[in-house]
Amino acid sequence: MATDRNRGALIIIEGGDRTGKSTQSKMLVDALLADGKQAELVKFPDRTTPIGKLAGSYLQKTLDLEDHAIHLIFSANRWEKVPSIIERLENGITLVVDRYAFSGVAYTSAKRGFDIEWCKQSDTGIPAPDLVIYLTLPVDQATSRDQYGTERYESTQFQKRAVENFEKLMTKNWTTLDASQSIDAIHQQMKDLTTEIMQQVGTRSIEKLWV
Ligand code: T5A
Ligand code: NA
C-alpha cells in the first residue's frame, strides 16, 4: 500500500554480456547495506522460478524454444516479480536490478524478423526505472573476459547487434559508464549515481515502463 514515506529507488544495471553487471550489482547492494540503507539485489532472468528454469535451460541449450515463445518467457519471468518489486519499493527498499526489459528487447530484436516495437509490447507496463546504468565495453574486450562463449547468444556478431539495440532504447534516465575502468572506479561512480537518485525519488509514484 502506498504511504507518505519515501519509497526505494528502482536502479537497473544493463549492458552487453561480460560488461561486469553482476559484479557491480552485488557490490552496489553491499555498499548500500554497509551505509545502513535498505537495498536488495534482483536478477533477470531469475532462473530459480518454474518460468525462469525454462529460460535457464534455453540459455544453456538443453531446451530449444521458438523465438517468440522464449521472448515471452523472459517477459513473464519479469511480470511474475512485479508485485514483490512494487511492494519492496513502497516499503522503502531500493532495488538494484541486474538486467531488465531492455535486455529482453535488445537480445530478441537482434534476431532476424523481430522489430523493437513488437519486442517492447510484452514488458509494457512493468515498473519504470528511476535510473538505468548502462555499462559499455567494446564487444571484443567483453568476449575475452572469463567464461565467455558457452551459453546461447555468446557470439561476437550477435552481441554487436544487441549493443546497437540497447542504444536505441536509451532515454534521459540512462547513464552510460565505461566498463573498461577498474572494478573499484566503476563501483564508486555507480554508488554516487545511486545515492543521488535515492534522495530524489521521495514519495514520487512508481511509473509504468513504455506507457
Ligand atoms: N537475456 C536476458 C535475454 O535474451 N532476454 C532477457 O530478457 C534477459 C533478462 C544471460 C543471457 O540472457 C539474455 C542476455 C544474456 O545473453 P545473464 O544471466 O545476465 O543473461 O548472463 P551472465 O552470463 O550471468 O552475465 P553476463 O555475461 O552478462 O556478465 P556480467 O554480469 O555483465 O559480468 P560479470 O560481472 O559476471 O563479469 C564477467 C567477468 O569479467 C570480470 C569478472 O571478474 C568476470 O570474470 N570483470 C572485470 N574484469 C576487468 N575489469 C572490470 N571492470 C571487470 N568487471 C568484471
Ligand atoms: Na551476469
UniProtKB/TrEMBL annotation:
MF terms in GO: ATP binding; dTMP kinase activity; nucleoside diphosphate kinase activity
Gene Ontology biological-process annotations: dTDP biosynthetic process; dTTP biosynthetic process; dUDP biosynthetic process
Keyword list, A-Z: ATP-binding, Kinase, Nucleotide biosynthesis, Nucleotide-binding, Transferase
Residue ranges of domain Thymidylate kinase-like in the record: 13-189
Source domain of life: Eukaryota
EC number: 2.7.4.9
Keyword Kinase: yes
Entry annotated with the keyword Nuclease: no
Listed pathway(s): Pyrimidine metabolism; dTTP biosynthesis
Residues spanning the signal sequence: none
SUPFAM superfamilies per the UniProt record, alphabetical: P-loop containing nucleoside triphosphate hydrolases (SSF52540)
CDD domains xrefs: TMPK
GO annotation, cellular component aspect: cytoplasm; mitochondrion; nucleus
Family recorded in the similarity comment: Belongs to the thymidylate kinase family.
HAMAP family (UniProt xref): Thymidylate_kinase
Protein name: Thymidylate kinase
Species for this entry: Trichoplax adhaerens
